[in-house]
Design brief:
There is one protein chain. It contains 17 helices and 13 strands. The protein has about 425 residues and is α/β, with parallel strands linked by helices. It has two domains: about 220 residues, 3-Layer(aba) Sandwich (Rossmann fold), CATH 3.40.50; about 180 residues, Rossmann fold, CATH 3.40.50.2000. Strands 3-2-1-4-5-6-7 form a seven-stranded parallel β-sheet, with helices on both faces. Helix 3 crosses helix 6, helix 6 crosses helix 7 and helix 11 crosses helix 15. The protein is elongated and about 75 Å long. The protein starts with 15 loop residues before the first strand and ends in an 11-residue tail after the last helix. About 45% of the residues are buried.
C-alpha cells in the first residue's frame, strides 16, 4: 500500500505592520515619509495602504520608491471593495452591523462625518483582505480622522489590533467619535506635547495612559548637513516653505515683506510649495507691486529645498489656527531651518513655542500681526549678528526634540511593548 506524499505547507508569512494613510505621498506630509524611510532603514516589515491616489506630482526619490514598492492603492467604490463588503456581510454580519451602529450612535453630533466614515467602509474591508493575506497583524493609522476610522473598523469587525499617529487634525473641536475611537486603540502617538496633553486630559478618554508623545525626527540629510558660513549683504533673503493654504499665513509673510520694501529695504522672497491659494497669493503680490521681489518656486525636490533654504538670511512662516482647517503642530520646515542654522521668524501659535523660544532660538510674533512680523524681519537686517546668536541655540534645541534615531527607537519600543510582535527583519542587507 502506498501513501500519498504530504503536500508541503506554504510558509506562514512573517508578521507585518499595515500602515493606513488617506493619501500617500502628500507633499506637506514629508514627516510621515521620513518616518517610514527610517522604519525601513531599521528593517521593519510594513506595507502602506493608501485610500486615495496622490494628487501632487511625486518628486522625492524615497516617495517614488515607497509608492511603487510598498504601497497598495484603493478607490472607495470598486468591484473589489464592494465584493469585500459583501463577503464580510456574509462571514461577519453581526460585528459589521454593530460597528456601523456604534459609529452612527457615537458620531451623531457630527452627521457629515458619519457619511465620510461610512464611505470608507468597503475600502477598509478590501484593505483588510489584502493585509491578512500578507501577514498584517497590526494596523497603524496616520491622522485622527479617516485612517484611524479604517483601523477602528478592522478592530471592531475582525478583532485586529491597531494604533494611531495623531498629527492634530480635528482634535480640538467637539468630536465624540474621536474619543470613542481612540479608547479602542492599542496605543496612540502624538507629535507635540500640546496635542498629547489635550488628548490625555480634554476628550474624556478612559485610557489616557496609552497616549504617548513622539516628536517627528528630521531627515539625516538635514542634520548631517554642514551649515554654510553666513555673510551679510545688502539684500535680505527670505525663504518660506509650506502648502499654499490659509493656515500657513503666507499672506502675512508677503505683506510684511512689502512693508520692508516700502522702507527701502532690498528684499528677495522665495516661496516653496504648491496649493489652492497660488492664484490668490500671486494677485496679492501683484497688488503690492512686489512681483520683482517675490518668487513662487512651486514644489521642489528635497535637495533643492535644502539648497534654497540654507543660503537664506531668514526662514519665515506665519501659521494661524482656523476652525475647520487642520492645525499645524510644529511645522517640520521650522525645525529643518533651525537645524541648518537659518534664523526663524514665526508665530506664537499651536505647539510652535515647544521648539522656538522667543529671543533664544528664534523670534515669535502674535498671529496675523503683520507689523510685528515686519519688525521681526527687519531686526535681522539691521543686526546681522542676531541670527548668529540664535543659530547655535536653535541647532541644539532641534537636536534635543527631533533626533530621528531617538524618536524611532521610542516608536519601535511602543510597537514591541503593545503588540508583542517582532516586525524587524533579523538580518539586514548590507
Amino acid at each position: 500500500m502506498t501513501t500519498a506524499a504530504a503536500t508541503p505547507r506554504e510558509p506562514m508569512p512573517k508578521p507585518e505592520l499595515g500602515i493606513i494613510i488617506s493619501m500617500f505621498p502628500e507633499l506637506h506630509e514629508t514627516f510621515i515619509l521620513r518616518e517610514l524611510v527610517a522604519l525601513e532603514r531599521r528593517g521593519m516589515r510594513f506595507h502602506i495602504y493608501s485610500l486615495q491616489h496622490p494628487r501632487d506630482p511625486i518628486t522625492l526619490d524615497d516617495a517614488i520608491r515607497l509608492s511603487t514598492e510598498r504601497t497598495s492603492y484603493s478607490s472607495l467604490f470598486t468591484l473589489a471593495t464592494l465584493g469585500a463588503l459583501a463577503r464580510t456581510l456574509i462571514k461577519h454580519p453581526l460585528p459589521l452591523l454593530k460597528s456601523v451602529a456604534s459609529l452612527v450612535w457615537s458620531g451623531k453630533d457630527r452627521p457629515m462625518d458619519i457619511v465620510k466614515n461610512l464611505a470608507i467602509l468597503p475600502a477598509s474591508l478590501h484593505i483588510a483582505e489584502q493585509g491578512h493575506k500578507r501577514g498584517i497583524v497590526h494596523w497603524h493609522g496616520h491622522w485622527a480622522n479617516i485612517p484611524t476610522t479604517a483601523c477602528w473598523f478592522l478592530g471592531r469587525i475582525f478583532g485586529d489590533s491597531w494604533s494611531a499617529a495623531i498629527h492634530g487634525e480635528d482634535i480640538f473641536s467637539s468630536n465624540k467619535f474621536l474619543s470613542h475611537k481612540l479608547d479602542e486603540a492599542t496605543f496612540c502617538v502624538v507629535c507635540s506635547d500640546l496635542f498629547c496633553q489635550h488628548l490625555k486630559h480634554n476628550i474624556n478618554l478612559t485610557t489616557p495612559q496609552n497616549i504617548h508623545l513622539n516628536y517627528h525626527g528630521l531627515d539625516p540629510k538635514v542634520t548631517e548637513r554642514k551649515s554654510p558660513d553666513r555673510q551679510s549683504h545688502p539684500e535680505l533673503s527670505v525663504v518660506s516653505i509650506g502648502r499654499l493654504v490659509p493656515t500657513k499665513g503666507l499672506d502675512v509673510v508677503i505683506n510684511a515683506c512689502a512693508i520692508l520694501r516700502s522702507r527701502d529695504i532690498q528684499i528677495n522672497v522665495k516661496i516653496i510649495g504648491s496649493g489652492p491659494l497660488l492664484d490668490e497669493l500671486s494677485q496679492l503680490v501683484a497688488s503690492l507691486g512686489m512681483e520683482e521681489h517675490v518668487t513662487f518656486l512651486g514644489a521642489l525636490a528635497f535637495e533643492q529645498v535644502l539648497e534654497t533654504l540654507e543660503v537664506a538670511d531668514i526662514f519665515a512662516l506665519a501659521p494661524r489656527m482656523i476652525p475647520g482647517h487642520p492645525p499645524d503642530g510644529i511645522p517640520n520646515v521650522i525645525a529643518e531651518a533651525m537645524a541648518l542654522g537659518v534664523p526663524v521668524v514665526t508665530t506664537k501659535v499651536s505647539a510652535i513655542p515647544e521648539l522656538v523660544s522667543d529671543g533664544e532660538t528664534g523670534t515669535l510674533v502674535e498671529v496675523d500681526d503683520v507689523e510685528a512680523f515686519a519688525s521681526a524681519l527687519a531686526a535681522f537686517h539691521t543686526n546681522p549678528q542676531l541670527g548668529s546668536t540664535f543659530s547655535q541655540a536653535a541647532r541644539t534645541r532641534v537636536g534635543q526634540l527631533f533626533n530621528q534615531d531617538d524618536n524611532i527607537d521610542d516608536l519601535l519600543a511602543l510597537f514591541e511593548r503593545y503588540t508583542q510582535q517582532d516586525f524587524l527583519i533579523s538580518t539586514l542587507p548590507d
